[in-house]
Design a protein that fits this description.
Distance between the termini: 43 Å
Helix content: 10-25%
Number of domains: 1
CATH topology: Immunoglobulin-like
Largest sheet: 6 strands, mixed
Structural class: alpha+beta
Order of helices and strands: HEEEEEEEEHEEEH
Shape: globular
CATH architecture: Sandwich
CATH class: Mainly Beta
Length: about 160
């Protein structure tokens, strides 16, 4: 087989592998791929609140469960090149969902986001980690907190029905 003929096979394999849930000693890992994301009993919705300057813009990630599986959540920012980790939201009860606010500027230093979900709030490792390679391109931006909140509420309601 010539190298050009194997290319489509390699691309197909990469697509299959990128959509697979990876299980490891620290739980399953899923790559998030959109600003509105639902999987395994959890809904994640991203939004941006514009500021007077780019440095004052805020990113919000709302995390809601659609079942009783996950009891706690935390968020880490990760430098994918150097491996440095930064806790952006310490482990907290998930109950009715949480809104995690971070400065948009933090994506420059630690662009990868890892949302850790725990079925046992006291467990050493998460049951599920959903990671994003930066802020999703599809993330909408809003000029007011009220408009952002309406969008998040509507998106979560829609995704929770599925």
């Amino acid at each position: 087989m010539t190298p050009l003929r194997t290319f489509p096979c390699i691309v197909s394999l990469c697509i299959v592998l990128s959509s697979t849930v990876w299980a490891g000693p620290e739980g399953d890992r899923i790559h998030g791929d959109n600003s509105r994301f639902a999987t395994n009993g959890v809904v994640l919705v991203w939004g941006v609140l514009r500021g007077a300057t780019d440095d004052s813009a805020k990113v919000v990630l709302r995390v809601v469960t659609t079942g009783q599986t996950y009891k706690a959540v935390s968020l880490e920012g990760v430098d994918p090149f150097g491996g440095a980790r930064q806790t952006l939201f310490p482990r907290a009860p998930l109950a009715d969902g949480v809104a995690i606010w971070t400065a948009r500027a933090t994506f420059a230093e630690v662009p990868q986001r890892e949302i850790h979900l725990f079925t046992d709030p006291g467990a050493a490792h998460p049951t599920l980690t959903i990671y994003f390679q930066g802020l999703p391109d599809t993330t909408p931006e809003f000029d007011s907190e009220a408009a952002l909140s309406r969008y998040l509420d509507e998106a979560i309601a829609e995704l929770s029905k599925k």
